[in-house]
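Figure 2 data, in text form.
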Amino acid sequence: MPGQAFLDEADRRAMNRSDEIRLQIAENIRNKFETKDSGQHETYDSGMVRDTEQGKPRFDLLLPLDVPFPNQFLTRCAELLERGARKYGERNWEKGKGDKELARAISSAIRHLVQWASGETDEDHAAAVVFNLLQAETLKYRMEGK
């Protein structure tokens, strides 16, 4: 695998799939990506110049400023995915390929939404809704051949 020349054989064998993915992402960043420029720049009082954020996804706005990390909704979603990875294996949810898996994800999303709206607290139903929508939207994207 590219980027592993610095690892000895024992380290390479010990790497799990997540490590391989992270290493591949780092290699892609080093070798394949360019820095795009919209032509619109913002200049700061310090003299720093950056491309504008206008028209770009603002992931930073997904994190409320007054909510500590453990209570962030995205943290709860990530914790749900971690529990699922321990129980079913990493990225098991991505194995789905067809209508049956899509129907199951939609069914689960609706059930968890109703449980959340009903005030049930036996599971993190809000995070489960988002997980099931993530799976459903990923399946729909892949099924459309994109």
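Caption note: Residues 1-36 form one domain.
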